[in-house]
């Protein structure tokens, strides 16, 4: 099973992906991974990507190639071995940040992923938080976190649109800013259980 976490910066998806991995570890073999990154090669590119300003289309091309490496070398082999793979950000972050946030053509994003044969997750948990609350929580400032509130509102709207378009894959958890970590975790377990029965 392949599960991804999505949301704007500060939406607590990193904490929640760890909590979910701990929960599943009691029963399954779990791989917890993240993007941008997930392989040695992609983690090296991540470091430059999060500080350098490059053209959004170049960034998209890099993200797809990093995702291809990640998919081919880590995610697919783990899924074939029957493991649960939990990934902190995946394809929907590219649609929300590069597409809705930076204005890259959504068709180009989808076509490139199709061309690369990127497998979609089975379940995607979208953590929807108020932009100001999210940005106040975000700790290590990367280049995106220096963008303005309008950019983040577009990114947030992007995630909301994805949830609307793909309800069979995506669960959106709203009002994250009003919940503590254990409430969010319990809601996530309920959502996953509902989808598995
Ligand atoms: P993330 O790992 O969530 O940041 P951190 O853990 O340092 O808070 O993600 C890093 C940034 O990368 C985040 O601001 C969103 C951006 N990003 C994209 O713009 N497109 C993508 O496809 C992905 C995977 C991430």
Largest sheet: 5 strands, parallel
Strand order of the largest sheet: 2-3-1-4-5
Question: How far apart, in Å, are the first and last alpha carbons?
Answer: 14 Å
Number of strand elements = 5
Q: Give helix % range.
A: 55-70%
Associated small molecules: thymidine-5'-diphosphate
Shape: globular
Question: How large is the share of residues in beta strands?
Answer: 5-15%
Weakly predicted, low-confidence segments: none
Alpha-beta content class: alpha/beta
Total helices: the number is 8
Integer-rounded radius of gyration: 16 Å
Mean pLDDT: 96
List the helices and strands in order. EHEHHEHHEHHEH
Provide an overview of this structure.
The chain is an alpha/beta fold. 55% of the residues lie in helices and 13% in strands. The protein has eight helices and five strands; from the N terminus they run E-H-E-H-H-E-H-H-E-H-H-E-H. The chain has helices spanning 13-25, 40-49, 56-80, 91-101, 106-115, 131-137, 149-165, 181-196; strands spanning 2-7, 30-34, 84-88, 123-127, 170-173. A five-stranded parallel beta sheet has the order 2-3-1-4-5, with helices on both faces. Helix 2 packs antiparallel against helix 3. It is globular. The mean pLDDT is 96. It binds thymidine-5'-diphosphate. Thymidine-5'-diphosphate (TYD) binds next to helix 4.
